[in-house]
Amino acid sequence: MFLWTTTIHKYIHSFILILLLSVQTVAEDQDITNIFVNEGLTGTIVISSVGSGETFIHNDLRANYRFTVASTFKILNTLIALEEKVISGKDDLFKWDGHMYAISDWNCDQTLESAFKVSCVWCFQELARRVGVQKYQSYLQNTSYGELHEPFDGETFWLDGSLKISAMEQVEFLKKVYQRTLPFSTSSYETLRQIMLVEQTPAYSIRGKTGLAGGSKPKIGWYVGYVETSKDVWVFATNIDIYDQKDLSLRLKLTRDALQIKGVVK
Length: 266
Hints:
Blueprint: H1 2-25, H2 30-39, E1 43-49, E2 55-58, H3 60-63, E3 67-68, H4 74-83, E4 93-94, E5 110-111, H5 112-117, H6 121-131, H7 133-143, E6 147-148, E7 163-165, H8 167-179, H9 186-195, E8 197-200, E9 204-213, E10 219-229, E11 233-242, H10 250-261
Antiparallel strand pairs: 1-2, 1-11, 3-7, 4-5, 6-7, 8-9, 9-10, 10-11
Helix pairs in contact: 2-10, 4-6, 4-9
């Protein structure tokens, strides 16, 4: 009886210890939480070191919730298009057909690089037509990218909610992109690396992509990418609720503030 009781107590102690360790692992980063509170924002951010695995999270429940990938899919879509050779490189041209879009930056000829930077939907829909549904199914499965609901429209699935991903999954995917462990060629990775560049200083380089899931209520704004420093590489994924046009700029501001407060950038 005594042995049985002692064993039960050991199991209870071990269970409590596991719970405590779990709480520490997903505990809120108060510094980053304060940024969200001060901006009056609802959202999440994950910042994680490629080298050490050290991770800072605000709102871990939301960090594991899947939202429409929106234009953040252009990261993987670019790799797929290059690998399938439906486009040859960052300077390859898309000819504008004259259709007037609400976003003025789309109303001209584009290169792959410019289309990526201005999130030109018609350009990447053209790539999607060239790639085809079956290829996307294969690549999404082989890269373990988010969750795809089938059947899906081959030209809108990253915009209409068919393909969803969480901030945590974005981070894991981007670590694989940086480490080049996904099934893509060196040239595809190198082209993506060039067109993802957002900012470069002597101390660090930031590569990233924004996204806006406009069909959601509220809309969901994304900013994902990674920061290369002399000592480490930090991957980040941010998503926030968007209620107004002015909220869009907060995706980048919030992320930069968080990166600064954790000492990743100056």
